[in-house]
Amino acid sequence: MELINRTIELVKEKLEGTESGHDWFHIERVWKLSLKIQEKEGGDKLIIELAALLHDIADPKFHNGDETIASRIVNEFLTEQKVDSETIEKVIFIIENMSFKNRNEAPQNLPLELKIVQDADRLDAIGAIGIARTFNFGGYKNNLMYHPDIEPKLNQSKEEYKKSNGTTINHFYEKLLLLKDLLNTETAKEIAEHRHQFMLQFLDEFYKEWNVTF
Ligand code: ADP
Ligand code: NI
To answer: Does one domain contain both 173 and 95?
Structure first.
C-alpha cells in the first residue's frame, strides 16, 4: 500500500544514524509483531500499522526533552498524505500514550489498537532481542554489566535503585522481568512466556559463569 510505503520511507529517513535500540530494525520488528497480534486480536489494521511505524519517530530524549515534536511530525506528514483527521487523531493518541511511563493507566480504557502496538513494543524489549538491546544500551552508556556487591531484585526502592549504579543486569529487574505482566492481549502474553523464561535462563547462566559455580 502506497501510504505504508511512504511512511516507511519517512521513518527510515528520520531514524537514520540513531542508536541501534531505536533504529529502523526495531520499528520493523514492532510493525511485524503488531500485525501478527492483530491477526488474532483484531483492531483497525491501518491505525495499528501507522502507529507501529511512527511510534519512535522523535524520542524527546534526543530532542531536548521536547514532548510534542513526534505529534507535530506525524500530524504534518499524515495531513500531507491526505489521511482523514479522525485516523490521524487516533494514531497520535497511541503514540502519545504507549510508553512504559504510562503503565498505571487503566488498560480497559485504552483502544485495542494502542494495546496491540504497546504489546509489540514491549515484546521487543524482552527475550533474546531484549537482552541484546539492553547490553547494547549499557555499552553505549558505558555502564557496568554487573556488580557482584549488588543483589538485584524486583520492585526495588529508590535507594536500592540508586545503589544499583544502573548496571545492565539491574535493568532486567527494574524493567525487563516486569514486562510480561504488563501486557494487554492474550496473544502477546503467550509470545512473552517463552521470552521471559529465556531471560530467566540467561540470568541463571550469567550468575553461574560469573561465580564459576557451573
Ligand atoms: P522504549 O523503546 O521501550 O521506550 P527505552 O528508550 O527506555 O525503551 O530503551 C530502549 C532500549 O534500551 C530497551 O531495550 C531498554 O530495555 C534498554 N534500556 C533502557 N534503559 C536501560 C538501562 N538503564 N540499562 C540498560 N538498558 C536500558
Ligand atoms: Ni519502540
So the answer is: no
Of all atoms in ligand 1, which is nearest to the CA of residue 121? 3
Q: Is residue 160's pLDDT more than 80?
A: no
Domain residues for the domain of 133 are 125-214
**Ligand 1 atom 11: residue of nearest CA:** 21
CA of 129 to the centre of ligand 1 (A): 12
Contacts of 75 by beta carbon, 8 Å cutoff, 6+ apart: 88, 92
Q: Which of 20-34, 79-93, 111-125, 188-202 shows the lowest mean pLDDT across its residues?
A: 20-34
Q: Which atom of ligand 1 is nearest to the CA of 122?
A: 3
Instruction: Give distance in angstroms: CA of 79 to centre of ligand 2.
Output: 23
DSSP 8-state class, residue 59: -
The mean pLDDT of 170-186, rounded to a whole number, is 95
Q: Are residues 28 and 93 in the same domain?
A: yes
Which amino acid type is present at position 116?
I
Residues 64 and 129 grouped into a single domain: no
Minimum-distance ligand to the CA of 134?
Answer: 1
d(CA 2, CA 167): 44
Would the CA dihedral through 181, 169, 133, 102 be positive or negative? positive
CATH number at residue 139: 1.20.58.1910
Would you give the distance in Å from CA 207 to the centre of its chain?
A: 26
Q: Where are the beta strands (DSSP E) in the chain?
A: none
What pLDDT score was predicted for residue 161?
Answer: 64
pLDDT of residue 155: 74
